[in-house]
Amino acid sequence: MIYHLIKMKKITFPVLTGIAIMALSACGGKKEQAGGAAAGGAPPVASYQVFTIASKAATLNSDYPATLQGEQNIEIRPKVDGFVEKIFIDEGSVVKKGQPLFSIRAPQYEQDVRNSAAAISSAEADVSAAQLQVNKTKPLVEKDIISHFELESAMYTLQARKAALAQAKTALANAKTNLGYTNITSPVNGVVGSIPYKIGSLVSSTNTQPLTTVSNIGKVYAYFSLNEKQLLNFSRTVKGTTMNQKLANTPPVSLLLSDGSNYPEQGRVETISGLINTETGSASFRATFPNPIGLLRSGSSATVRIPQQIKDGILIPQKSAYELQGKHFVYVVGQGDAVKSTEIEIMDQAAGQFYVVTSGLKTGDKVVFDGTSSLKDATTIKAEAMADDKVYEGLK
Q1: What is the dihedral angle through the alpha carbons of 202, 191, 88, 110, rounded to the nearest 10 degrees?
Q2: What is the average per-residue pLDDT within 221-230?
């Protein structure tokens, strides 16, 4: 280009010099760009924390929603018809066995007692008269003044009068029993429930609602259910050849209250339903908890927690795994510090913030601690080893 300009003789020397300098500068810039790309073409290797898999002991907790029921929930119902005359307790009161609860006004039963007492007096008089007739007839028969038939007739009359007296006494006992039903006492130690009927209410044995309910809550039953899969897992993991042996070997269970707090007393699983409910596909369990201070109340809801001990398990922090299409994966560090996405299988129960791995990993494998959101398969990393106590901090 410069040669052609010179040949054309239209450009002066200073202009020619400037053009030559610009051309040389352009060539030098291209070389610098090429050199810079060559020097910085490979991206820097990122650092990630890595831990080594080791066998650990842990406690797995399985939680099941439960309904609490008192040891006894007794409906207090009237056995006689009448009006509520007195209420000796209030809702929520703690009562003792034999303590008065209600008084029912039923004058008819008082009258029945008086009538039965009068009937007894009349029957006793009839018995005395019949006995006199027997005593009068007997010597006359012995002297053959009257026939033996008269004595037998008198004796039968005495026997009938005695039977009538016994019947009158029975009627009096029944009348007193019915009258006793007008005073209702607590059959057990417990806590009083709601009282739907107030003073003056007409009540009878046919009422749909009870007068109240007394709950014996010295011990409380927690009812919960396991589905078929959970029941099979329970049967396989708990030692014992019979269900009674498995129940005896079941560790003590704990209770989480509705506010999330731990109930201070531990309980025991005591019974398992022999049948699986065809509608829900689950079996019913019952755990018993002591209730010395009455903190638990019948009808409350809670959560039963059953622990399971793992001696030599492979545990990883939950943050070290990621989920894809219902499967779990981790990044395992291989040769040359290149990571590989590896599928793992885990147990349904978690040990706090840790997964229990059943397959996909083995002792000695190196796993990326936290990089699931930024890593890709086959990426080379700079591995930084983590201390074991940092990885499993908080593991119980």
Answers
A1: 50
A2: 91
